[in-house]
Amino acid sequence: MPYCILVHGSDLKYSSRSKIDAFISSKILKNASMILVNSKYTKDRVLEKGYKRSKIKVLNPGVDTKIFQPNIDTHKIKERYKLFNRRIVLTVARLVPRKGHEIVIKAIPEVIKHIPNLVYIIAGTGEEESRLKEMVDKLKIRAHVIFTGFMEKELLPQLYNACDIFVMPSYERQEFGDFEGFGIAFLEANACEKPVIGGRSGGIEDAVVDGETGLLVDSHNVSEIIDAVVRLLKNRDLAEKLGQNGRDRVEKKLSWQKIG
């Protein structure tokens, strides 16, 4: 029976954890009529494993633009986290090493010299939480960083709307075969007309159009992240333009309505 399989990126890592996993994964991919991948980068990684180019197609993920949209009332979320009169930088992601939270945290002390009312919101849970909180305490920036823990899905659109910038400088951990296959959160933020900052790594270049819907930076370069964050927080016209471009792009090319 013909079948199609979708590869996100991280599943390539998990499919190689053992010989039996690798064998089963190889069989499934080899016999598939079509292999859909979420980005050009993921396509390259699948090609490296020797599968036929002719049956590999790129299908970028999409978001529901009726759920993720601008001009949503943010009073509830701002009240919960005392965000009134704050400039907000946001990351929504699992707290795992490759998402780059620690790089943003390292940038915060310098950013607050330029933007004293800054707050960095980290929404999500994961294995890195304790270590990241220790970093925050060591840098003495607790007043400028909020860990929300688990965030209810219905509150995410409010959170995106409340922020000024979404940032996620993900990077590839080659020794573990761990990379960002795409980065759907960038589209969610863009759909809410927010500018984004992403790491120049993995499939993020499919999710973020550098200079058009956001800015791409070297994920390991703290100075680049500082410059990008300060630039967008100080240049509201640029931030607004990138956010609007992001919304337009999602509506035209990357909404569920278009992809479906």
Question: Can you describe what's shown?
Answer:
The protein is of the alpha/beta class. The protein is built from twelve helices and nine strands. The model has no long low-confidence stretch (mean pLDDT 92).
Summarize the structure.
By secondary structure, the protein is α/β, with parallel strands linked by helices. It is built from twelve helices and nine strands.
List the helices and strands and how they pair.
Blueprint: E1 4-7, H1 10-14, H2 19-31, E2 34-37, H3 40-48, E3 56-58, H4 75-81, E4 87-92, H5 101-114, E5 118-123, H6 129-138, E6 145-149, H7 156-162, E7 165-168, H8 184-191, E8 196-199, H9 204-207, E9 214-217, H10 222-234, H11 236-253, H12 256-259
Helix pairs in contact: 5-10, 8-11
Domain Glycosyl transferase family: 85-248
GO molecular function: hexosyltransferase activity
Domain Glycosyltransferase subfamily 4-like N-terminal: 2-66
Keywords:
260 residues; alpha/beta; Rossmann fold; 2 domains; 3-stranded parallel β-sheet; 12 helices; globular; Glycosyltransferase_grp1; Glyco_trans_4-like_N; hexosyltransferase activity
CATH architecture of the largest domain: 3-Layer(aba) Sandwich
Mean pLDDT: 92
Looking at CATH, the homologous superfamily of the largest domain is: Glycogen Phosphorylase B
Count the DSSP helices.
Answer: 12
Major sheet description: 6 strands, parallel
Give the percentage of residues in beta strands. Answer: 15-25%
What is the class of the largest domain in the CATH system?
A: Alpha Beta
* CATH fold label of the largest domain: Rossmann fold
Order of helices and strands: EHHEHEHEHEHEHEHEHEHHH
Shape: globular
Strand elements, count: 9
Give the CA-CA distance, first to last residue: 23 Å
Instruction: Determine the structural class based on helices, strands and strand pairing.
Output: alpha/beta
Name the strands of the widest sheet in spatial order. 6-5-4-7-8-9
Counted up, domains total 2
Protein name: Glycosyl transferase family 1 domain-containing protein
Pfam families: Glyco_transf_4 (PF13439), Glycos_transf_1 (PF00534)
InterPro entries: Glyco_trans_1, Glyco_trans_4-like_N, Glycosyltransferase_grp1
GO molecular function, one term: hexosyltransferase activity
